[in-house]
Amino acid sequence: MRRLTELYGIETLSARYLKQTFRPHAHDEYLFGVIDGGVHAVWCRGEMNRVPQGAVVTMRPGDIHHGGAGSEAGWHQRMIYVPEAGMRALLADITGREPTGTVDFDAAFHARPELAQRFAGLHEVLHASPQTLARDVAIDAVIGALLRELAPQMTQPATEPGGRISDAIDYLDSRVEEDVTLEDLCAVTGLRRRQTIAAFRRATGLPPHAWHLQKKIGRVKRLLRDGMAPAAAAAQTGFADQSHMGRHFLAFVGVTPAAYARG
């Protein structure tokens, strides 16, 4: 489990359970998740459910639930716990209006394998990425996808403003070594979080964290060509460590930093 204090106090959980049994309980937060493997047998909203791999979970604050393994193999789940204040802030940003009441997705469990797969990928970023901007974009993408696909009535599109995206691009390009946040970019663009991400993607073809990452790799390449060691290059470009930099370098360049430096 990980707690993202800087991101509304959201908590993320990735766990595999074999014999775990949960007593009847509820959460103060919204609970969003996916069953990533196996089967979870869980009682919620008056009935027992066998929730298999590929199912998306959406629970409201106060939803009583309990259960355990639905098979001998147990189950693997990825969960995001979003405090009500954080959910209101995310909804206001996504919809452009202040939400009222509790958000309800009509059911607690949804057989949506494609959405579940996207959720799992974004959850991994939230749960494991050391980059603040990547986590910022991931939570907006997760909540946005859930709303668009499971509660589309809440996300009627409005006219999208352009904002000062060229200034945001310059801002990222000049801060390759920093851990920039989405709030930093919003201050530059004059837009809300979702608007900034959408406008940035329209202008560049990439979300802001991916743009920043490719700029970091470009700087690493120059440093390696100048003879700097990979570990030092990783430190100078704001990566968590050499291993973190190396994974992204290979994905962008197709060779390891060491191989690139030798070439």
From TrEMBL:
Organism of derivation: Paenirhodobacter populi
Superkingdom, natural source: Bacteria
InterPro entries associated with the record: AraC-bd, AraC_XylS_family_regulators, Homeodomain-like_sf, HTH-like, HTH_AraC
PANTHER family: HTH-TYPE TRANSCRIPTIONAL ACTIVATOR RHAS-RELATED, TRANSCRIPTIONAL REGULATORY PROTEIN
Name of protein: AraC family transcriptional regulator
Keyword annotations: DNA-binding, Transcription, Transcription regulation
GO MF, any single term: sequence-specific DNA binding
A Pfam entry, by short name: AraC_binding
Domain spans labelled HTH araC/xylS-type: 166-263
